[in-house]
Amino acid sequence: MANVNSLLILFCSIVLVSLGETKLVENNYAASIFDMGDLISYEHYLLNILQNFTNDLQKRVDTIEYYLEMVGYDEEEELPTDPIESFRIIRRLYSDYSNWVWYLEQQPWETSVEHIIAIAPQMPTEKDIGEANRGLKLIQLVYSLPTRHMAEGVLQNIHHNTSLNAMECYTIAKDMAKNNELKFAVEWLNVGVEKYMEDRENEDLYTQLGVPLVSFYELLAEIENALGSRNLAMNELQAALKEWPEKVSLSRAQSRLQMDIRIGKEPKKKKDFITGVYQQCCTWECRPNKKLYCLYITSYFLRYAPLKMEVLSLDPYMVIYHDVVSERDIISIKNLSKHGLSRAKTYGADGALKEDPDRTTKGSWLNDEHEVIRKMTQLTQAMTNFALDKSEDFQVMNYGIGGYYGIHFDFLGYSKKDKERLPDRMATAIFYLSNVPQGGATVFPSLNVSIFPKKGSALIWYNLDHKGDGDRRTGHSACPTIVGSRWVMTKWISEEEEVLGGHV
């Protein structure tokens, strides 16, 4: 067993050293469900390597077991009783000994390591696992999902064919503790410990993969200390030290805890999260109480297929068009955008584009050089009654794990001086290119309105009021996606656009 552990340690050391020499790039896997397809391929590649590795090892085991059987291995050390047996022993130790040394020195893992290293640049980074954790946290907080249900794959009372193991619960708990979500961190850790105990026979595997049972005790003491339950934290550490007295990390944690107790360090304050209308409208479809209406819209472009329009709000103006994009056009748009998807960015206070932690999505810009986009431009003009010559290109977006866009405004909010030279975004059109089984609504908290994605529909609203200033009631969010892949296409319409002829 010691030899096997030594080989595993050597194997892991080779991988770690090699990975350290390889530059890891940020692929932002957690920001797009579509890109998860690449990770599935990489995981199959890795699992095939491990399967081939075990097959090679099994062949060696079979060879050694056959030799032991051929020799007639017996733990009893008895003197040979005849010259034939004496000869056989001498021959084996003279000839077979050196061959076995050579055989055991051959390292079947070297080729496997080389193949694993080859895909190192495509592996997820610390940023990816952080964003994946954050996506799960958003899903849990926004939709008020019990921790135990999530761990068992039960989301909004729908049981999905998946669940989390002890290591995965530990990873979530550790990230939540890091981000001061302490109540949830304790819940995830407790569920993780229960799952660990249920699978105690695989403790060696968990330890080899970097999550020994002692790690749970250390993290629990850390969280209880942060919550101010220092006596409980000390009890946990003392129990752990009895079990693992050789663990230096436990002794250090105990010393830190004793220091915090002496100086009376204040516990961390709990973070607040958005509640009320936002959570309600992300969970259930919200509509204004006012009695509005639906109607058909026609124009020259739409003479053979009038549009079904539902009025959601008159002030600010907001409507949804049903069944306006065909399945064929949706497939074409997705195919055009898939290879151009990159991390979506937003304008910062300094006017520069940068990544926003409140926007977990990837986007691709499409212009009118494509036939289907020219068709979408005509359709948008027919729905809005605006020419689009000076507006921004269409942006197709695919959301990631817990795919989310925090509450924001589409208008750019220029000052009076800036507005003299820069146009603002007068209106927004969002085309829904996929159904989302759970979550993913577009919500306007100030208006008590939410729209759940329905493939082929389009949502349109005005961002500016009658004075041309940004209407702050239009603050909106893409609620976290729970299940499914959320695809949308957005068109921001410039206030410089001309008004076309009225609808017929």
From TrEMBL:
Keywords: Dioxygenase, Endoplasmic reticulum, Glycoprotein, Iron, Metal-binding, Oxidoreductase, Signal, Vitamin C. It is an enzyme of class 1 (oxidoreductase). GO terms for cellular component: endoplasmic reticulum lumen. Gene3D superfamilies: 6.10.140.1460, q2cbj1_9rhob like domain, Tetratricopeptide repeat domain. Its main location: endoplasmic reticulum. Residues 390-495 form the Fe2OG dioxygenase domain. PROSITE patterns: FE2OG_OXY. Its EC number is 1.14.11.2. Catalyzes the post-translational formation of 4-hydroxyproline in -Xaa-Pro-Gly- sequences in collagens and other proteins. This is procollagen-proline 4-dioxygenase. The gene is LOC108017259.
